[in-house]
Prior knowledge:
Blueprint: E1 5-14, E2 19-27, E3 30-36, E4 43-44, E5 49-52, E6 54-59, H1 61-66, H2 76-89, E7 92-101, H3 113-126, E8 133-141, H4 147-152, E9 160-166, H5 178-187, H6 193-225, E10 228-232, H7 237-246, E11 250-252, H8 257-265, E12 269-273, H9 274-279, H10 289-294, E13 300-302, H11 309-320, H12 326-331, H13 335-340, E14 357-361, E15 369-375, E16 378-379
Parallel strand pairs: 1-4, 1-5, 6-7, 7-8, 8-9, 9-10, 10-11, 11-12, 12-13
Antiparallel strand pairs: 1-2, 2-3, 5-14, 14-15, 15-16
Helix pairs in contact: 2-3, 7-8
Amino acid sequence: MPDMEQILTNAKLVLPDEIVEGTLVVRDGVIVEAQPGPSALGEDMAGDYILPGLVELHTDHLENHYGPRPGVRWDVMSALQSHDAQIATSGITTVFDCLRMGTDEESSWQPGEMRILADALDRAQSQGRLRSEHRLHLRCEVSSPDVVDEFSAFEGMKSVGLASLMDHAPGQRQFVTMDQFTLYYKTNRGLSDEEFERFVAERIARSEKYSRKNRMDIALACKQQGIAIASHDDATLAHVAEAVRDGVAVAEFPTSVEAARASHDAGMSVLMGAPNVVRGKSHSGNIAAHDLARAGLLDVLSSDYVPLSLIHAPFCLADEIDEISLPAAIAMVTKTPAETVGLDDRGAIMSGKRADLVRVSRHDLQVPVVRSVWRGGRRIA
């Protein structure tokens, strides 16, 4: 069989440490060479950027497609394909889809539904229905009494690559103060003062009873199964020490500069939301990602709840912070997240890496436009 060669020329190639105006050669789905200067052969990129395919470690978006309204469940394959289309056209070629572990009596999700989604995702990939490569991120609410049982139901599933340890009890982590917790759970749900007080007391009691043991059990299982571990909403040095003990690789959404610095210094990749960057602030009133970026404490960005934010945010950082170049910002959504979870075959425009690529045009500091996306050298969007 002859080699399948692709040449993309007249492009701004975003390499790990620099931007080169030149030509990219891909053969059999693998990057062969990045050359300076134009080529007489190949597809003209008209001066657009060529970036590595984006790597998304934390998106809750799949659940929104499967359950678009309270009590509504969409056809699972249709939901997956709709989610995948939005992911791919946002330039994301590798995505870790979040599934919640642990029953929440306030939620409309039923036990077993997350496994339905996971099994359907595996089928969809094996049938070639999906454009991007999908993996699973299990979001484990350690204060839930059945979280270990739900997590155990995924044992041996090869698509599971990341698990986060989270505790949303009031008075700690994401909800260090009660203002945001009150808005989330009292104001938005219309609870009376008495109902809210009972709700808060129950959440705190569950956390005190279950969190420590469940966290340790799940962390141990992840180590045994080779699953990367993330902490979630760490706020204090004690939280970070706990994360170090558990072998955490990703510090998701730290809620204080102190916790972010300690996590970064301990070798964890500090992850913040790309919507936080685009909006200039946290939706939950915690620290701004810009502040961590200026302090050199931001390693990874996640689209969280807006897929297109993952291509937008790096350009915002490069525009607004003199110390952050565009290649450094792009690494936060490509090279660093890939390496953090052990995917060393992708995430950079380098010889031998998988040809996951995104063509992006951007003019006058506007929202970037994704023109084309390739995964393993194959055009997917």
